[in-house]
Specification:
Elements: E1 3-9, H1 16-29, E2 34-37, E3 40-42, E4 46-48, E5 54-56, H2 57-66, E6 77-81, E7 86-91, E8 94-100, H3 101-125, E9 128-132, H4 150-156, E10 160-165, H5 171-180, H6 184-187, E11 190-198, H7 206-216, E12 220-225, E13 250-255, E14 260-261, H8 267-270, E15 275-280, E16 291-294, E17 296-297, H9 300-310, H10 312-321, E18 326-329, H11 331-335, E19 339-342, E20 352-355, E21 363-378, E22 393-404, E23 411-414, E24 417-420, H12 431-443, H13 455-473, H14 476-484
Length: 487
Amino acid sequence: MAKNIMIQGTMSNAGKSLLAAGLCRVFRQDGYRTAPFKSQNMALNSFITADGGEMGRAQVVQAEAAGIPPDVRMNPILLKPTTDMGSQVIVNGRVLGNMDAMAYYRCKPELVPAVLEAYRSLEREFDVIVIEGAGSPAEINLKREDIVNMGLARLVDAPVLLVGDIDRGGVFAQLYGTVALLEPEERARIAGVVVNKFRGDRAILEPGLRQLEQLCGAPVAGVVPYLHLDIDDEDSLSARFDRVSDRRLVDVAVIRLPRISNFTDFGPFERYENVSLRYIDAPRDLHQPDLICLPGTKSTLADLRWLRQSGLEAAVKQAAAAGTPVFGICGGYQMLGRSIADPEGAEAAAGTEEAGLGLLPLDTVFRGEKVQTQSRGRFARVDGLFSGLTGMAYEGYEIHMGRGEEDLPVLQSAGNVYGTYLHGVFDAPGAADAVLEALCRKKGVDFARLGAFDAAAYRERQYDLLADAVRENLDMELIYRAMERKS
């Protein structure tokens, strides 16, 4: 039977996902077959597995760190928010339906068998399971039906590391307050507390850490510094959205839609020293980029209306008319078309229809069935500025409700406007290079000035650096001892 360790946090975005990925890498380096697990994830960034199942990208990253293929068993329940009060509920990689918060709360007990079946299946195949919680275990209004924090820890008999985020302030209150709200048997599961995202001299913390151990009745298992690593973020709390980037040799502007999803599609552009990637949500911030990107979204029609009302639709169309290349992915691709219709109410009210930006010959109709598939092949003829993509190998995944009424190429183009349903389109070897080379030619600058980049080697290096940081700043002996414990 596999050993396990669970990472819980005092709040969302305390750093659970990254530390879990780091532990996955450490255990892999130590010779253990390791798998991640998160029973319930709420995120708009998702991934399609080889067998067409949908799961959260955080567990995809953790699987990569562990050196194994992503599997929906690692994230049996995925919630994709559709409104402030409701989400699309995905179980074992397939859509169960849309539910408001109360309906899902009532449904949760019925999902426990699916969660346990997924976990037990992984347990039979791996030596170590690294489990990630969600939000906080001290949400006392939700504890009765908890299946993702201490409720899950009890079901699978997991020791817990409790992580607090010092970068937001109040970390001692976060950690002690969380522990104080737990039941005695829950407190007994805490093998250690972790102060995460620390900037400064640890010696300054020491008096507080000793008192914290006394208050919590658990050792401090580590103080982890604020890590500057290039590893995919889980959701829209991503710090990259707030990053102010100077415009560099090549400037790429991504429209920050209110319900943006899979923004990691544009990550490859960030890794070139002389490329700026800016997320903008107002016309005044657009300026004159070399490329405008429209990303995916969980609510295409609602975000299309926002694009129109914000003035960004007019700004994008004006830039396209002036020759600026525009590239849309998934929902952004649909927005670039002539029309979007939802006759069955798959996303909005039944019968809703909106005019698109009219930059691509595409008419989208939403149907009830969701497209979930991995895709690979070679690009057919690509016209215009990005013709260098022609014949190039691609690999990615599609995940969308709407589709065109006619067969379309993987990458559709009209003049300087391009669109695709393929998430990960820029990850394929040479794809980002081909796009950036074309932009450099258009500007009359030397592509070599952007800097060379090996995406696969770079990604592996980031995971190794993360593992180094985990080893250096967490008490791995304590963690290994905790994993031998049985309650």
